[in-house]
Design goal:
Length: 229
């Protein structure tokens, strides 16, 4: 079964992730060393900073730049995006190319503020259009919520969740991360940005999962990951 990292900033020179091609080469090597087969390249897409078309152009350029190295490392890189939530996203044109290559799976970064009913409606609108929404690291938004009811309501929607490996590794966030991972439709991502402060650490997260939730849990998660791609 394949091991998939659903959240990486491995593409060079697009966002606050990999600085350049050399760093990406190193990140790919570490990825291969951890036995990861597939990574989704989810560079940040901020609609106020870049047009859809420009983002796709830049992403394609970066994908071409690293194709040889990825192949040499034996790591499959699929294009995607970490799409920042914005008001009106449910009606926006151009979401399809931001989805994980070959799918209608959208990695969505919710706002770092308290969520409200309008956000729920936007989410529902995206789902109504036939997209599968994967919430990027929901655990990171909890400290911002003043209305935990809305947070729970979002998680009760038919969305997938991607938890950061880091949140499992750190003791302070482990309980919350494990609770989210027990939810149906949960997968793991490293959210790696570089080689030092935010490195590839999927394997460490997987080890916590295996220890706490068991090998069969991990197998089921990997099965889900394969099905999603
Ligand atoms: Fe990210």
């Amino acid at each position: 079964m394949k091991i998939v990292d659903f959240h990486t900033h491995i593409l060079p020179g697009i966002d606050d992730g990999s600085r350049d091609r050399d760093m990406t080469v190193q990140m790919l090597k570490v990825t291969a060393e951890q036995g990861i087969d597939t990574v989704i390249a989810t560079s940040h897409f901020y609609p106020d900073k870049m047009s859809f078309d420009h983002f796709i152009q830049e992403r394609n350029r970066a994908m071409e730049q690293i194709a040889d190295t990825a192949a040499a490392c034996g790591v499959q890189v699929l294009a995607g995006a970490e799409v920042a939530f914005f008001t009106g996203i449910s009606r926006a044109e151009g979401l399809k190319p931001l989805c994980v290559e070959g799918t209608r799976l959208l990695l969505l970064e919710m706002p770092f503020r308290s969520w409200h009913k309008g956000d729920l409606q936007e989410l529902d609108g995206i789902l109504q259009r036939g997209y599968r929404v994967m919430l990027a690291h929901p655990e990171r938004f909890i400290p911002f919520q003043t209305d935990r009811g809305i947070f729970s309501a979002v998680l009760d929607m038919p969305v997938l969740v991607q938890v950061n490996a880091e949140s499992l590794v750190h003791f302070s966030t482990r309980r919350t991360a494990l609770k989210l991972m027990r939810r149906e439709g949960a997968v793991l991502g490293s959210d790696c940005h570089n080689l030092t402060a935010r490195p590839q650490n999927l394997l460490a997260g997987r080890r916590v999962l295996e220890k706490r939730l068991g090998a069969e849990y991990l197998r089921q998660m990997d099965l889900l990951a394969e099905k999603l791609l």
